[in-house]
Amino acid sequence: MARRTEVVVDLDRIRHNIHYLKTRIDARCAVMAVVKADGYGHGAIPVARAAVDAGAAWLGVALAEEGEELRRAGIRVPILVLGTSTPEQMELAVRQRLDITVYTPDHLATLRTICHRVGRFARVHLKLDTGMGRIGLEAEQLDDAWLASFRVPELEWVGVFTHFATSDAAEPEGTRRQLARFLSALNFLRGRASLPPQIHAANSAALLRYPGTHFTLVRAGLAIYGLKPFIDAEGLLPALSWRSQVVFVKTVPAGFAVGYGHTYVTKQPQKLLAVPVGYADGYRRAWSNSSFVAIRGFRYPVVGRISMDQLTVAVPVEDPVVVGDVVTLLGADGLVMVSAEELADGMDSISYEVVTGIGKRVPRRYQGN
Ligand SMILES: *Cc1c(COP(=O)(O)O)cnc(C)c1O
């Protein structure tokens, strides 16, 4: 490590997670590995390669630019852009043979123009809003006029999909209601002999909880990284570890104040350790005086305010911690663990925000193939 702070991603664990998810779905159902936001902070290209190698037939991204990055890395499987694309992003998607999410007549009109200019057809997935209340055509508005606008030679209608708002919650009612609305839209399409080949709805939580949502394809993000979409999810192995090193140790007396604002004062003599990671690396200031790190198989508290580039850890005087010891900020160390879920709780958020928040200046290293 040049810098003493790094993220290590175990690609064998990504593979394990894909294999595990495949045991939870029907053999005819495919997995889309969602690698938006640089693979949830893990690195989109290495994760995508490992996921495809382990049997993910599809990839999902939020932006056409993210899909382009994968295509430039030589990845050839179908890639769906899950978010809304501007006309420029639609053109990029058509050129890079990315599948595009559409849900307004404008999207279709823009795409047809682009297809004529580029000399290619476009692959599209219709997004239905069944209760997420975000992007998508309100499911009940799908009608014959819509179908007619899809039946044009420039467009290859590949899929229809929806997204759940509450599949990670204990309460199943919200997902049931969304599923019912989705099923009636599918019935309408079936009645018109217009079902596209791909039908998809499930994210990680729905994949693990609701087999009735699997259809032909499941879109798994969080779970492929081994993070739990709900507390009692099993079988997943977290792939990411975030580590640094002790760069300075000093023993201080009781009454010693630490860091900006002097928010921590020692109650007895302690060893204070300096660790070169801070909020500019994504180690949130909100974790000041509340998070833990692991060193030599023990958990120790982060004390005082977390600064931009460093933090302080307090250790009992008798514990044999020295400069150069590995500090696990996130991940396992011997028998102890610092989980993304616990860090998320400490910032009133979810594990997604913890891992996607690890900064660009933290180098990523890969284990496994
Ligand atoms: C991000 C995303 C997913 C993946 O969700 P996870 O909860 O991470 O599995 C699936 N579908 C859509 C539309 C998304 O935007």
Please provide a brief summary of the model:
The protein is an alpha/beta fold and 369 residues long. The protein has helices spanning 11-23, 36-40, 44-53, 64-72, 87-95, 105-118, 144-150, 173-191, 204-209, 340-345, 351-356; strands at 6-10, 30-34, 58-61, 79-81, 99-102, 122-129, 137-138, 155-161, 198-200, 217-220, 240-245, 248-252, 257-258, 264-265, 270-275, 292-295, 298-303, 311-316, 326-333, 336-338, 364-367. It is elongated.
Protein traits:
single chain; 369 residues; alpha/beta; TIM Barrel; Lyase, Ornithine Decarboxylase, Chain A, domain 1; 2 domains; 9-stranded parallel beta sheet; 5-stranded mixed beta sheet; 21 strands; binds pyridoxal-5'-phosphate
Number of strands: 21
- The top-level CATH class of the largest domain is Alpha Beta
Low-confidence stretches: none
User: What is the CA–CA distance across the termini?
Assistant: 20 Å
Instruction: Give me the number of helical elements.
Output: 11
Fraction of residues in β-strands: 25-35%
Q: What would you call the structural class? A: alpha/beta
Major sheet description: 9 strands, parallel
Second CATH tier, the architecture of the largest domain: Alpha-Beta Barrel
The CATH topology of the largest domain is TIM Barrel
Globally, the shape reads elongated
Using the CA coordinates, give the radius of gyration.
Answer: 24 Å
The percentage helix is 25-40%
Number of domains: 2
The CATH homologous superfamily of the largest domain corresponds to Alanine racemase
